[in-house]
């Protein structure tokens, strides 16, 4: 198939979210002396990560607001260990977002793949993240030149994997589903969502532990493989 538009997820597909986030949380843990409250950084981070995943599901379903998401995910670990302090997680959160926006680590070989792709296709970011933060990530990591537009759930008013955000992305870029492909690391959000919206799918399968309910258009494990498919 001849593609024209490629929609690419940002976090853990282009920008190394897991590594950048982990590094930033460790910085904040030390900065705010959270060793006073937790047995280890891993203790704190596991509490945060589990609750964060739950909250993003609630946010995606419209059950909580952006502000409620951010307040709860940063205060939850402290509450678990008996610390009732609204000011501390607020300061932690503010400093965290300021610092993580400056992180520039990309997924392995992604920059080389983008250099190859952007000369052949129209590239767009399609992400569930928040506008200000996602734009800063793209700018800090030096990949903004590759993308014609950034489409975010916060602007669309709906999250991946819902069909409406893919329809919104197509409309915003004057693209057609039959000549568009979605590339991402999340089976549910990126691949299943794109499939249900009529787009082709490139599954960046970085952990090889996903139970796939159908065969996507193609699967790759390293960005170096992308020229085999596109």
How many strands, what sense, and barrel or not for the largest sheet?
Answer: 6 strands, parallel
Distance between the termini: 9 Å
> What is the element string, with H for helices and E for strands?
EHHHHHEHEHHEHEE
Strand content: 5-15%
What is the overall number of helices?
9
Write down how many β-strands occur, each being a DSSP E stretch of 2 or more residues. Answer: 6
Rg over alpha carbons: 18 Å
What is the average per-residue confidence, as pLDDT, rounded to a whole number? Answer: 95
Strand order across the largest sheet:
3-2-1-4-5-6
Low-confidence stretches: none
Q: Which structural class should the secondary elements be placed in?
A: alpha/beta
The 3D shape can be described as: globular
Fraction of residues in H or I helices:
40-55%
Written description of the protein model:
The protein is an alpha/beta fold and 230 residues long. It has nine helices and six strands, in the order βαααααβαβααβαββ. The protein has a six-stranded parallel sheet with strand order 3-2-1-4-5-6, with helices on both faces. It is globular, with a radius of gyration of 18 Å. 34% of the residues are buried. The mean pLDDT is 95.
Write the layout of secondary structure elements.
Elements: E1 5-8, H1 17-31, H2 41-60, H3 66-80, H4 87-100, H5 110-117, E2 122-127, H6 131-140, E3 149-152, H7 153-156, H8 163-173, E4 180-184, H9 187-196, E5 200-204, E6 218-220
Parallel strand pairs: 1-2, 1-4, 2-3, 4-5, 5-6
Helix pairs in contact: 1-4, 2-3, 3-4
